[in-house]
Amino acid sequence: MSGPASAGEDLRRTIVASVDAERLVEVACSLVDTPSPTGSEQAMAERVRDICEEMGLAVSWQEVEEGRPNVLATLAGTGGGHTLMFNGHMDTSYSGREPHLRGKAGFQPRATVSDGLVWGLGIANMKGAIACYLEALRAIQGAGVV
Fold first, then answer.
1. Which end of the chain, N or C, is less packed with Cβ atoms under 10 Å?
2. Distance of CA 66 to CAs 17, 42, 44, 46, 63, Å?
3. Residue 105's pLDDT band (cuts 50, 70, 90)
4. Domain spanning 21-137 has what CATH number?
5. Contact 59, 66 (CB under 8 A)
6. What is the reported pLDDT for 92?
7. What are phi and psi of 34, to 5 degrees?
8. What's the rounded Cα separation, in Å, for the pair 117 and 14?
9. What is the Cα–Cα distance from 19 to 33, expressed in whole angstroms?
């Protein structure tokens, strides 16, 4: 079968093949290991900004409150196509230093990889998603979509 549907499927396969799982895990661990408790997201924003700049994205810094910036990154397309937007928060519910969390089963403030899974503070909400967004953009770049 040929035509638009198969061309779209070919493109999807090319993008998925461009995903680098090792790099994704490395970035996810880097984000988890960057402290960002609510109200103190500066270091995390700087890390995300640096990654976006390394990727060649156009980056804007939006200072919402002191220590709580937004990072806006754009990968320009060729024009006329669809727009894809990712968004998420960079703070974590805990700092990782709370005494009541020490020794609690499953609490892991630093990134750890075990049995193919990344564990750590913020990985599920939502540092893992941010790492996936960044890798998705890299895969799109690697596939030559834009």
1. N
2. 40, 8, 14, 13, 7
3. low
4. 3.40.630.10
5. no
6. 93
7. -100, 110
8. 25
9. 22
